[in-house]
Amino acid sequence: MDGKAEVAAAAEALRAGGLVLMPTETVYGLAADAGNARAVAAVYEAKGRPSFNPLIAHVSDLAMARRIVRFDARAEALAARFWPGPLTLVLPVADDEAVCDLARAGLDSVAVRAPAHPLAQALIARFGGPVVAPSANRSGRPSPTTFADAVEETGPATLAALDGGPCKIGLESTVVALLDAPRLLRPGSVTRAEIEAVIGPLADAEDDAKRSPGRLARHYAPNAPVRLEVTEPRPGEAWLAFGPGGSGPWNLSPSGDLREAAANLFAYLRGADRTSPSGIAVAPIPHEGLGEAINDRLKRAAGFVG
Ligand code: TXA
Ligand code: MG
User: Fold this and answer.
1) pLDDT at 210 over 80
2) I want to staple 286 with a disulfide (CB 3.0 to 4.6 A). Which of 96, 193, 238, 291 is the partner?
3) 70-84 pLDDT, tens per residue?
4) Which CATH superfamily is domain 3-211 in?
5) Shortest-distance Cα residue to atom 19 of ligand 1
């Protein structure tokens, strides 16, 4: 089968109410028809995800997004600058059937994003409507960034799976709510500074947990205990190094490049978890730019965020 036939078969699976492993530029998603409550229920079940945690509706383009949410000038400006790409916008719902109640967890807002991966774009365009796609991990585990990891996490629950190779970015999209004052709900590879350059200052989400129902404390977590900002690992611990001089097999980026570190992060956490169940020690990572998102995921992996 060539790529086109696989995309057609995956779109057919969505139409039949089935789940599909969908590669994106950030992480692999577990996709379903956003308007089909039974299919959406199967997504929650496959992930073991609490049903109060809403899903992102993925669209092929701005026209499809306009069918499901109401855009204001700030949303227009952000979509023009960053779509297709790793930015999710939380906006007021316009059509409460296109993205069913369960997918929205009953909220009157919807999170939307247009992914940049060609297979995701082809699948959504071929399907012809919005597709919910949470990260394809089981709830509370690191997001899958390779096809093999996605298959291992939730593959058995799917009717079709598209292999898009390793995810280029490796961290989930940045989530910004535009319901009143713009708010950063989840840092990601589109940085705070890049967003503020377009729409001005962003408020933080941490002071308003209700608005980011998915931000559970222990999230993205391997089974092994994780220690952060470690300069000397203990015997038996896997060492996630960063920068020149870091020894061992798990250097997130020998050259100290944050993009490379983001792309490696979840795969290395998984790998280290397999080889060193006694513990994972992570070197200090700079907090600026993309480092904000990397440190956010690490804090959650270590269980530090309440
Ligand atoms: O990069 C990504 O965004 C990946 C790929 C597959 O696209 N998807 C992803 O989905 O990370 P998920 O479900 O793992 O994370 C969605 C986040 C959750 O934290 C959820 O609480 C939040 O978005 N969210 C969804 N709808 C929301 C809403 N209406 N209001 C506030 N937060 C919302
Ligand atoms: Mg997730």
Assistant:
1) no
2) 291
3) 999 999 999 999 999
4) DHBP synthase (3.90.870.10)
5) 214
